[in-house]
Amino acid sequence: MEFKSILLPGIEDKRPIIISGPCSAETEEQIMETAKKLSENGVKIFRAGVWKPRTKPGGFEGIGIPALKWLQQVRKETGMYVITEVATEKHVYESLKYNMDMLWIGARTTANPFAVQEIADTLKGVDIPVLIKNPVNPDLELWIGAIERLYNAGIKKIGVIHRGFSTNDKTVYRNIPQWHIPIELKRRYPNLPIICDPSHIGGKRSMIKTISQQAMDLNYYGLIIESHRNPDDAWSDSAQQITPDTLGEVLRELVIREKVQSTEDLSDLREQIDELDNEILQLLSKRMRVSREIGLYKLEHDMPVLQTGRYDHIRKDRAEQAEKMEMSGDFALKILEAIHTESVRQQFEVMEKAKK
Ligand code: PEP
Ligand code: MN
């Protein structure tokens, strides 16, 4: 896929491009006051949710069409561009009717191919930048599928928003970043702009700055950050919104490291990494050879492949060892599980062959 720039006239092609505004449009005053303050802080693209996807019915589900009129007003009075979330054919029609400059697709919608296709079909022949949030579940292919649906409908100005992924695990995040997923997306589509949404990743004000800096250090193109004239009173996502002035501070404190000046030191380190990766693979290959020998031994002696007691012991022991070696026990367990899965597969394979 060959993407076109999502930049609108007058917006500088300079990292980070900033999109900010409240989670939801609540009242005309809230929108106008927040927008003016953001504009004073240098923000050029204003976001606001007009239709809000809520987990349960009965909560605040957005103002709908009257809020689109407020966004038009923002455009007129501040000169900012405006962007809102669309999830259905009707949302797209209304947003285009009220001259939204950009659209975004929410995380719950990206996870639903029917909804994405409906949006794509409605956008056929329209030239508008669309930002696609990652699906709520950590499924890169589903994210790429949504990008393809829009691209195939003729939308070429596409960007993605990384807003983290849901999890049942207890973490400090509202949605865990799983940075490797957007990094892999970028590897596959180097000219696809990635925008980070630290508000929905962190879920709380105190995390916005750190996550924004991490995104910049990973070379992200932009940030979408929720801001509200009075965050404590926000009708949705109150804990994660910041004031326009705090946003200004966060942006001023960001350190943007453009291209490394001297790549020499780095290439030394990269060589070390290549060598170490090679050694790891050699070791794994040896490890699998031993596993196969064990498989044959078990076959000869009529023993089961999996001996749970021993595996439990190995897991505990290796996790503890890893912690002592400046790695997380979790990380060690993940690797061990992958090795164990492959090891069991190889044992089965060698046993099948031996039986023939
Ligand atoms: C939002 O941006 O306010 C929103 C609903 O986000 P997400 O789709 O990432 O949950
Ligand atoms: Mn929100």
Notes on the structure:
The chain has 356 residues and is of the alpha/beta class. The protein folds into two domains: 17-253, Aldolase class I (TIM Barrel), CATH 3.20.20; 266-355, Up-down Bundle (Chorismate Mutase Domain, subunit A), CATH 1.20.59. Strands 1-2-3-4-5-6-7-8 form an eight-stranded parallel beta barrel, surrounded by five helices. The two termini are 48 Å apart. Helix 2 links the parallel strand 2 and strand 3. The chain has helices at 28-40, 65-78, 89-97, 107-110, 113-122, 140-152, 180-188, 198-202, 208-217, 244-253, 264-300, 308-324, 329-355; strands at residues 17-21, 45-47, 81-85, 102-105, 130-133, 158-162, 194-196, 222-226. The radius of gyration is 25 Å and the shape is elongated. The protein has 13 helices and eight strands. Phosphoenolpyruvate binds next to loops.
Please give a quick description of this structure.
By secondary structure, the protein is α/β, with parallel strands linked by helices. It has 13 helices and eight strands.
Rg computed from alpha carbons, rounded to a whole number of angstroms: 25 Å
Number of domains: 2
CATH class bucket of the largest domain: Alpha Beta
Helix content: 40-55%
Note the total helix count. 13
Per the CATH scheme, the topology name of the largest domain is: TIM Barrel
Number of beta-strand segments? 8
How many angstroms does the end-to-end distance come to?
48 Å
Q: Can you name the CATH architecture of the largest domain?
A: Alpha-Beta Barrel
Mean pLDDT: 94
The H-and-E topology, N to C, reads as: EHEHEHEHHEHEHEHHEHHHH
